[in-house]
Hints:
- The chain has helices at 3-17, 27-30; strands at 31-37, 42-49, 59-64, 67-73, 80-83, 92-100, 106-111.
- It is elongated.
- The longest helix has 15 residues, at 3-17.
- By secondary structure, the chain is an alpha+beta fold.
- A 4-stranded antiparallel beta sheet has the order 1-2-6-7. Strands 3-4-5 form a 3-stranded antiparallel beta sheet, with no helix packed on it.
Amino acid sequence: MDFDRAVVIAAAEYLIRHPASTLPEWFNECVTVQGSPTKENQWRITYSLLPIFELGPNQHWEDMSGRRVLVQVDPKTMKSSFFIHWHGAPPIEFFKIVISKIDESAEVILDNDISHIDVATLDRLVAK
């Protein structure tokens, strides 16, 4: 089983537990899905949210080819530095599932309620 199939199985399991009609309206704009293979011949799929990244002095976001990039301007030279990766607050993991690559059996190992989370505290995946 490949990663794409594991993501489909994870999504189906999540929607069984949390029907689409109950999801916060910001769900599709804020949730990230990551996966990694395990030594036990499984896929570990994790759903998470990213808290808003607090910009430092002389920093701002720019949209470059549909991707949001962090820019920092040196106040002395006025030259811009572009950051493709940066470290912000750790992600909020709220759903984790392991799926067997052999028989596609699944075990949910984390399932936290996200309905109480204020969208104003979350980073959105689209360019701002």
